[in-house]
Write a structure and sequence with these properties.
Number of strands: 18
CATH superfamily of the largest domain: Aminotransferase class 4, branched-chain amino acid transferase, N-terminal domain
Shape: globular
Bound molecules: pyridoxal-5'-phosphate
Distance between the termini: 21 Å
Order of helices and strands: EEEHEEEHHEEEHEEEEHEHEEEHE
Structural class: alpha+beta
CATH architecture of the largest domain: 2-Layer Sandwich
Number of helices: 7
């Protein structure tokens, strides 16, 4: 399918203060849109960024058939726009689509669309180190119908927006023992909009208690650690980097998680994907063997965890200056994206800008 391109006659870029880019508030000039009707995707197009007009009975608004992805384009030090593992995001979008009874979107078209979109709006990629163009591919059900069943029509769209450097402060996590994010058989592994809505209330309660985010525990026993906010979690205990496994379908298969595991394995560092209970964390903290805990996700790459609250315990972790693993993997991924560290996996995909200008 050929992507039809209609460029915006004007740009809003001069209205944006690139010295102050709060996350999620500024949007670039163009967006990609594609529609699904009668069993097929059609009319892929890049257009000036615009609002949609939606019928009040649009099914996504009622029954939650809505999925998305989150990724970033950055510029290398010599100005080449780069995507990071775009085909993995395209694939994960389809895993989410399958679970939510939505049509798969062709993965090659996904990557082509976002490459073209980023190329057209390349002036919107902030240059300052650590800043990026955030990319939000989304799919929603668009049938105008009241009644619980899969929609017959869908809209897939991608929009982008510049975000400033993210210097995450170490986070305080609350291990949640009353509410759950995901249960086996549920939708935890999908990037489905409803997963985030369900997390808002317990996260607010934890924030009221002074924590930044939740550390989710399993739905059966409130024992095994799942993930945190919009991050997968890693612990370093006695020199071994451990992260919960994907089995059970209760956590998102994070692109950052996978990249970190690959990097550490390639360096021969001990890593383990296995179920890890909150009791093991409590014990390791008592023994002094809990060296690091960090969250991993596209937004910050790595967010160090400073404290974990669990029932009446508050566990304080070693200072960030002693966090070798989290600091190292963040530097590796940031370095590959900036083009200053060799990417031997081919994760960074340069965007071909010349074909469009
Ligand atoms: C629930 C959840 N877990 C983990 C992640 C981290 O995934 P990734 O590294 O692909 O950004 C995200 C962010 O997309 C998320 O929303």
């Amino acid at each position: 399918m050929k992507i039809k391109i209609t460029k915006s006659p004007t740009s809003r870029i001069s209205e944006v203060n690139f010295a102050d880019l709060p996350f999620g508030r500024n949007f670039a000039d163009h967006m990609f849109v594609c529609d699904y009707d009668n069993g097929e995707w059609h009319s892929p197009r890049i257009e000036p960024f615009h609002n949609f007009s939606l019928h009040p009975a649009t099914m996504a608004l009622h029954y939650g058939q809505a999925i998305f992805e989150g990724m970033k384009a950055s510029k290398t030090h010599d100005g080449v726009p780069m995507l990071f593992r775009p085909e993995r995001h395209a694939h994960r979008m389809n895993i989410s689509a399958h679970r939510m009874c939505m049509p798969e979107f062709p993965e090659d078209l996904f990557v082509e669309a976002l490459s073209k979109l980023v190329a057209i709006d390349q002036a919107w990629i902030p240059e300052e180190e650590g800043s990026a163009l955030y990319i939000r591919p989304t799919m929603i059900a668009t049938d105008e119908f009241i009644g619980v069943k899969p929609s017959q029509s869908y809209k897939f769209f991608i929009f982008t927006g510049p975000v400033g450097p993210y210097y995450p402060k170490p986070v305080r996590l609350w291990a949640e023992t009353e509410y759950i994010r995901a249960a086996q058989g549920g939708t935890g592994f999908a990037k489905a909009a409803g997963n985030y809505a369900g997390a808002l209330y317990p996260a607010k309660l934890a924030q009221d208690r002074g924590f930044d985010q939740l550390l989710w525990l399993d739905a059966k026993e409130f024992k095994y650690i799942q993930e945190s906010g919009t991050m997968n979690v890693f612990f370093v205990i006695n020199g071994v980097t451990i992260t919960p496994p994907l089995t059970g379908g209760t956590i998102l298969d994070g692109v950052t998680r996978d990249s970190i595991l690959e990097i550490l394995r390639s360096e021969g560092k001990p890593v383990a994907e296995h179920a890890i209970s909150i009791d093991e964390i409590v014990q390791a903290h008592k023994d002094g063997t809990l060296q690091e805990a960090f969250g991993a996700g596209t937004a910050a790459v790595v967010s160090h965890v400073s404290e974990i609250g669990y029932r009446d315990l508050l566990m304080t972790l070693p200072p960030v200056s002693e966090r070798k693993i989290g600091t190292h993997v963040k530097a590796m991924i940031d370095g590959m994206r900036a083009g200053v560290i060799e990417d031997k996996w081919g994760w960074t995909v340069p965007v071909a800008v010349e074909e469009l200008v």
